[in-house]
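With this grant's support, we have settled on a layout for protein records. One resulting record is reproduced below.
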Amino acid sequence: MGPQVKHLRPLVKRGRFMQLRDNGEKIAQYKRRAEELVERMTLEEKVFQLLHDAPAIPRLGVPAYNWWNEALHGVARAGTATVFPQAIGLAAAFDEDMMETVGDAVSTEARAKFNAQQRYDDRDIYKGLTVWSPNVNIFRDPRWGRGQETYGEDPYLTARLGVRFVRGLQGTDPDYLKTAACAKHFAVHSGPEPLRHEFDARVSAQDMYETYLPAFEALVREAGVEAVMGAYNRVNGEPCCGSPTLLRDILREKWGFTGHVVSDCWAVRDFHEHHAVTGSPEQSAALAVSSGCDLNCGSIFVHLLQAVRDGLVTEAQITRACRRLFTTRMKLGLFDPPEKVPYSAIPYETVDSPAMRRLDLETAQRTLVLLKNEGDLLPLDKTKLRTVGVVGPNADSRRALAGNYEGTAGRYVTVLEGIQDYLGDGVRVLYSQGCHLWKKSVEGLARPNDRLSEVKAVCAASDVVFVCLGLDAGIEGEEGDAGNEFAAGDKPDLSLPGQQEEVLRTCAASGKPVVLLLLSGSALAVDWAAEHVPAILQCWYPGAQGGAAIARTLFGACAPEGKLPVTFYRGDEALPPFTDYAMTDRTYRYMRRPALYPFGYGLSYTAFAVTDAALDRTDVTEAGLTVRCRVTNTGGMFSRATVQVYVKAERPDTPNAQLKGVRKVPLEPGQTAEVEIPLPPEAFSLCGQDGTRTVEPGGYSVYVGQSQPDGRSAALLGFAPARLEAACGVRMVL
């Protein structure tokens, strides 16, 4: 290698505002205060502080605190809160600024609720300021039920959105955290749900560092995330919540993480009950703490008292974990007078306020992805309609709005209600449930397809038919949350479940224009619809205001701007086995067959032209490159263009072109904007078989446009991104 190799330190981007993580003096002060407090505790007191439901220590003035709270897309499971679109839908906006705005809104409500709960001495579960979000696992397989909680299948997009969501959650105050965010589930975790307590994810170093770790590293290095949650499964033989490789070697020593690590709930119990890597609760608790797990969601850590007596773990290791936890509580201001903590002044009235509902509506509008619009069927002109039909099991379903890990909204607007409200009394709206979401009949004693005749009647009387199909969190979700024949939350395949496809075909056979509205948290193989239905809108789980957002989009009050954060496959036949964690043939980065609808794809009601694309230089050095282009709204509606930049290493055995830059550009009709997107050296890097990230000498293609450069995207859009050429002359090790 010699002079032909440059070793670069990883770039750490700074936020626009000073955050607590930048205030070294204040953090040192919190650490000293935590150390002084913990030194006064007995061993038993310290052990019980390592449980998620930490008891009070009255003699030291330590109040009880429950660490378990959820805020995936709004404050969850603690009563009323704004229910934003599910995480996968938020990702579809491809908008970093929007993610920080949503994160800030969520943390505002979390503080408002916490302040009110504290006044009434309510310290129950889901009432704290340590929120176990975001989920930055990679959605590698569309069958995974919890993929809806993620930001999709791409490490770059996941990292960028996750960083900004964490910044919104944790705030920009130089002295205090607004809430403490948590990156989960560290690190190689994406199903199958039924096997998670015993499964060993075998993964190569190359896939680990190229796919599964980058988002976690970004949240640690760039966002200063306060907590990391370990996963249930093992990775290469080590249980994640007791993995020296993950928790010590990578997280703390390599990345410099200084926050606390929490186990997934009752995951430490799996060490001896399912993984069989230990032989007793004492050994499991000792392995977790000695490896760097500080907080036990569960109760196994009570066995640490005996583990100390048995010499399995030292009191010093328990003290270390306890100090980390109390440092987080200090950062949150939980041991300071409320008047010193600016977030303590946030009033309860901010929760579910009109301003929050407006933000929820605007956010939902920006998450919708228009997959097909044959003959410009959409948007519809309501003045030309007399009767519309709304059909399907998700048409009037609140559950299909919310997804999982949700709060309770003060007002929900289903798709049916949104269309009724938007059209008013001037247009008749006919409704049929069409079928059960997954069963053969709606009524238990009825024959199969007991609503099909009603569907036909609705279609016959309607000028246009909206068919609302898909899934909900009862079909796809976490193990234990799904309550039907679809075992443990994962999908058995990618088909529309139950009788839904037959309902869709019946509507199409009526001869009336059909608009398919898909509400789901994951990709579905809608091959028949792609060929026979003129318009398809992917709506995800769009949040409490989702029905209003969908209606406004259908009738042209706003234009869809979402892009797919996951690949829509033609079926699951080409997918590798669910338990295979190798990335070969998975996601747009490695798949070899054309997609039904590709990652990064999405139509609009307006049109954009990306022109004059150029690089500021063609040689890839440690300074990186900058992409410049002009973006013009050549259509007739305001919307936001999504400029996407992909990089392909032009040498054998390298991945497909990968997303390495995104910019959202709001444009009025006829308006043009100049866009610059930096590409650091990391954008041209790949990992070798040993996991080392390098930029290798040779040629690189840089694609600039509105999609990835695959043939399927070009065929669907009618145009392809511009291709630019760059080259690297010296091998760089990052």
